Amino acid sequence: MNLLITGGAGYIGTELIFKLLNDSAVSSIVIYDNLNRGNYNFFLGKTKIDSSRLRFVKGDILDSRKLSKEVEKADIVFHLAAKVTTPFADYSPHEFDQVNNWGTAELVYLVEKSKVKKFIYASSISVYGSSTEELTMESPLNPKTFYSVSKMRGEEHVRRLIDSETKTYIFRFGNVYGYSKSMRFDSVINKFIFETNFSKRIRIFGDGNQYRSFIHIDRLCTFLSKIYYSELKPEIYNLVESSFKVNEVVSVLKSLYPELEMTHVNQNISMRSLIVKQDERIQEIKSVKEKELILDLNEFKSKFSF
Question: What's the pLDDT tens digit per position in 85-104?
Answer without folding.
Answer: 654 455 678 889 999 999 99
